[in-house]
Design a protein that fits this description.
Largest sheet: 5 strands, parallel
Protein name: FMN dependent NADH:quinone oxidoreductase
Organism: Luteibacter yeojuensis
Family: Belongs to the azoreductase type 1 family.
EC number: 1.6.5.-, 1.7.1.17
Bound molecules: flavin mononucleotide
Function: Quinone reductase that provides resistance to thiol-specific stress caused by electrophilic quinones.
Shape: globular
Radius of gyration: 17 Å
């Protein structure tokens, strides 16, 4: 079993990093010996879509005959997802949605004719489903009765991951981090972890 572990927070001491690490630990508890592939966007950020890549994606013709090398990086990121039995993504909420560095990764892995097919009914995912665990940290509250802001993060990630064929998405969140001390944050992590079954279907 292979776990792809991605972190998108720019902060080293980060709530979403602690939660994503705890998710990986739980997965390793139920699948001892699993390997972990790491992508840390604070250390190695995914660049925004550049000219040749955007040109390749600009029409069916250019996609069929892309500028040389323009799809190589995208291909390597997609293969990391394909090689994973489970994907764990730690992400902060930045301005109601994902940080731009995670969006940059999405722009590389959600690619027409490779991870989805366009049909008159919408995108059809071409990847085999596998569980995706999203560890979210938000300074304020975006879900439940105490929500004080809209949430464009969870519906967005459900839509883009679902477009690739990744339908089994679990959201775990530590919310209101601006007001949590260390003990409260640890408790919030435990509460989030308790909402999910970490057994990965073979
Ligand atoms: C640029 C930026 C935008 C943010 N926007 C929001 C927001 O829209 N809603 C929110 O609840 N918190 C927002 N925050 C606060 C972070 O979500 C919060 O600090 C969270 O704990 C960050 O995750 P981390 O601890 O994993 O780094 C923002 C923080 C930054 C740096």
């Amino acid at each position: 079993m292979n776990i792809l572990h991605i972190d998108a927070s720019p902060r080293a001491e980060s709530h979403s990093r602690k939660l994503s690490a705890a998710i990986v630990e739980r997965l390793l508890d139920v699948s001892p010996g699993a390997s972990v592939t790491r992508r840390d966007f604070a250390i190695d950020p995914v660049p925004h879509a550049w000219s040749d890549y955007a040109t390749a994606l600009s029409s069916p013709t250019t996609l069929a005959d892309p500028p040389p090398g323009s799809l190589d990086f995208s291909e390597s990121l997609i293969r990391e997802v394909e090689a994973a039995d489970a994907v764990v993504i730690g992400t902060p909420m930045h301005n109601l949605t994902v940080p731009s560095v995670l969006k940059a990764w999405i722009d590389q892995v959600l690619r027409a004719t490779r991870t989805f097919r366009s049909t008159p009914m919408g995108k059809v995912g071409l990847l085999q489903d596998r569980p995706v665990f999203i560890a979210i940290a938000s300074g304020a509250i975006f879900s439940g009765e105490r929500a004080n802001q809209p949430d464009f993060l969870t519906p967005y990630l459900s839509a883009v991951l679902g477009s690739m064929g990744l339908q089994t998405v679990h959201f775990l969140a530590v919310q209101g981090t601006a007001f949590l001390d260390d003990g409260q944050a640890a408790l919030a992590r435990e509460e989030a972890l308790a909402t999910v079954d970490f057994a990965i279907p073979a």
